[in-house]
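Subject: sequence -> structure tokens, single chain

Hey, anyone have a minute? Need the predicted structure for the following. Not urgent.
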Amino acid sequence: MSEAIEATEKVSSTMSEMPFHLRDIKLKFELSNFHPIFSPLDKVRKEVKFMVLLAVTEWDKNLIIALCVGTVAFLLGSLSADIFSGGNPELVGLEGMRKVGSFSFFQLLLGMIGWVWFVYLIWVQFPVMRVHSISMLLIWNGLMFLQVLFHQNNSDFPKDMVLSDMMYGVLIMLVIFFFVYFFWKAVIETRDLHVQIHHVHEDVRVMEKEMREHSLVGWGSLLVFWLINAFYSCWNGVHYVARRSDQNPTYYIMHIISGLLIVPVFMLLMWYPQRMLGSDVRISTTAAITAEIELSQGKLKIEDEAKCPECDAEVELQRESDGQLSVPCPNESCSNKFGIIGTVCSVCKEKFPTRFECKSCGVNLPYIDCVPDLEAW
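Reply:
Had a minute. Here:
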């Protein structure tokens, strides 16, 4: 538990320090020079380059250890004599486990320990992404299981595939697509809310600039790549075992090569949103946040230590979960009543002010200027 607390504190302390920004990244050559249609590819390349360079710069010993543990656990489960030989199809369940050689059984135990250790390290290092990291690991296992179902009655899948034999595999695939979409949507909408709250500005152009700086196009492309690569790796592994009579090791080799990319890309997908949004955020969709606000009857608020930028005097305001600012009513008879800036008080019918007048130094400025800058990016 202490390791988890230390990791969270370390993440929080380093969030505001950026060695470089997305706008600083330059490509050696741009595909858009050949044709403007390739501009989106340049955008993806630029963002992926930024993510990789930032990870290389900032990943500490703990993240490197987690990466090594996950990679070794994958290799322990893949580089097995039983898998290489195709195994014995007539031995299943506990009987098959009893027939496993001593070295292979020891390797199996080490692999299981490695995966448990890897999950623990991910749980500690990515406090914001804990639920989503477990979901993505389950998705990886689901991809392997659906390949088993696809090859159950057709060892040459996808050749000669029959739709009736693919029903359960397709069902699992649809569930996987749903969870991946939910994960992507939660990160995107949390990013949008983060920019609206922590980078609010009267000038729309400034907010658009911040939105570009917080772009997740490259991250989303990496998520698609991870899903396709994991699917391809699982297909190669299951296809090799299903074709026991085929002595061609190409499928097995491609399973290993493509599988080695799964763990580092997975960690990058978990680390980048947390690095961007901070360790005190909750990755969730707008619909989930709205539902929580409705269930709490509008009482869910984010407290901000707002201060006057001139004299540091405390400013009374609250921030709603959707990013809007609530200020006290100007009427002294209902001063305990808070409301959204620009709306009308339901008690005295006076309009909630948009500007703050400091009683200490007399400065008059918009309430937005009193909001502290808490951005992680």
